[in-house]
DNA sequence: TTCGTCATGTAATGGGTTACATGATTAC
DNA sequence: GTAATCATGTAACCCATTACATGACGAA
């Protein structure tokens, strides 16, 4: 158990998708790439090794529905391999979904983490959104500073590029602001209704 | 000529920056990261090996300005190393700036290629912009198709993510449209003025 | 029966990061 | 004189890609 760094983004994505429903690799990859569509695309060369690794570490298992009545005794020669989560896998997924750190708000990971927000605790969601926002704001500030420093020394295409980048990020920040606002409103509403019924927020007992 | 794949994006970026003015590695990296600000950030761990490789392949050379009057006979112990392009390097840069292929319009390369558009031929610029646009439109189409297929089966966060991605890309397409429009207008104007004067005036009048 | 798609995999490679190690210069 | 920053470099590793190889299955 020492070391054994997970496959980063892919691990979460695979576990998350398999949690929604069991699947075989090929389909997994398609769902992956439509899910993340604009952000990333994985190839088989990374997916299958990842599945293999998850298998050997006991987070997923093969799940052959066994519908062999149809007179095919050896139907298993290079057929589909459907994977599903094990108990350990569910636990691992839960763990991944609970940590709100750089991995969850940097460029590589944010999309995937966001995609599974409906399985994520509300407070974690909020911290991830805020983390990403402040990350982007850092970037904005440093680029704006650089832009102010070098004003008039850059050619028009460079300027155009930096402006477009700036505007894109500003746009994402506005998007995050709106999401954060919604999350906060939701939390308040929940807090209100729970204080009404004299209950403190149940802190995610392990089910 | 056999093999010797260049260091991808970095090679172009380094050659391009050094073409504008000689620099040492540390400064190069800063300029690199402000130039590309929103898109990429390189670390020394990739920059210095790249410089080394460019050095050994003769595309850049050390350029010590030699201002040693100040009584420092051994001023060179671990001092700055300023690099500049060689003739080969300039040629290579020109070559890189002339090819309008996937490398120039895929996500990884587009920003860098665009950043040096002022050193790029007008027709190449146009083809790169159009290449990127059609690349993005492909992506839009496939995501929209997927979205239509799975409508109502996805949870709200996934939907939110996909929508945001979609809008981001649509926005970039609009940006590209405008740039392409400008480029075309410029080309037409140049064509017009050159046809106007091509009978009695020497062609090639630079401003 | 052949072609396109579904489906699973591996080996070689690649481009990059992190963490580390160290020296030089500047500001206080 | 010491801390921060400038400046150069390397080794170990990581995540993923490309290209390849193979096999099953349905439709023309």
Q: Enumerate the strands of the largest sheet of chain A in spatial order, edge to edge or round the barrel.
A: 1-3-2
Biggest interface:
A-B, 32 and 32 residues
CATH topology of the largest domain in chain A: Arc Repressor Mutant, subunit A
What's the CATH H-level superfamily name of the largest domain in chain A? Answer: Winged helix-like DNA-binding domain superfamily/Winged helix DNA-binding domain
The average pLDDT value of chain A, as a whole number, equals 85
The top-level CATH class of the largest domain in chain A is: Mainly Alpha
Protein name (chains A, B): PadR family transcriptional regulator
Keywords (chains A, B): Coiled coil
InterPro entries (chains A, B): Metal_resp_DNA-bind_regulator (IPR052509), Tscrpt_reg_PadR_N (IPR005149), WH-like_DNA-bd_sf (IPR036388), WH_DNA-bd_sf (IPR036390)
Short recap of the structure:
2 copies of one chain form a homodimer. The first copy, chain A, has 207 residues and is mainly alpha-helical.
Structure in words:
- Two copies of one chain form a homodimer.
- Chain A has two domains: 9-66 and 81-114, Arc Repressor Mutant, subunit A (Orthogonal Bundle); 121-196.
- In chain A, strands 1-3-2 form a three-stranded antiparallel sheet.
- Chain A is built from eight helices and three strands, in the order H-E-H-H-E-E-H-H-H-H-H.
- Chain A has helices spanning 9-20, 25-35, 44-56, 87-98, 102-105, 107-115, 122-149, 156-196; strands at residues 23-24, 60-62, 82-85.
- The radius of gyration of chain A is 22 Å and the shape is flat.
- Chain A binds chain B through residues 34-35, 37-39, 111, 114-118, 139, 142-143, 146, 150, 155-158, 160-162, 164-166, 168-169, 171-172, 175, 179, and chain B through 34-35, 37-39, 111, 114-118, 139, 142-143, 146, 150, 155-158, 160-162, 164-166, 168-169, 171-172, 175, 179.
């Amino acid at each position: 158990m020492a070391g054994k760094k997970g496959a980063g983004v892919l691990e979460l994505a695979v576990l998350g998708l398999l949690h929604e429903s069991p699947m075989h690799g090929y389909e997994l990859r398609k769902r992956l790439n439509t899910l993340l569509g604009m952000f990333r695309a994985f190839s088989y060369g990374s997916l299958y090794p990842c599945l293999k690794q998850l298998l050997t570490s006991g987070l997923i298992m093969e799940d052959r529905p066994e519908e062999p009545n149809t007179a095919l005794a050896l139907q298993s020669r290079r057929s589909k391999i459907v994977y599903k989560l094990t108990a350990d896998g569910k636990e691992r997924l839960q763990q991944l979904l609970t940590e709100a750190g750089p991995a969850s708000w940097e460029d590589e990971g944010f999309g995937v983490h966001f995609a599974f927000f409906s399985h994520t605790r509300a407070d974690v969601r909020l911290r991830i959104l805020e983390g990403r926002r402040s990350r982007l704001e850092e970037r904005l500030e440093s680029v704006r500073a650089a832009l102010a420093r070098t004003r008039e020394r850059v050619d028009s295409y460079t300027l155009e590029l930096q402006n477009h980048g700036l505007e894109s990020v500003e746009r994402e920040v506005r998007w995050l602001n709106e999401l954060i606002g919604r999350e906060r409103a939701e939390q308040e509403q929940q807090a209100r209704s729970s204080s009404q019924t004299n209950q403190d927020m149940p802190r995610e007992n392990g089910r």
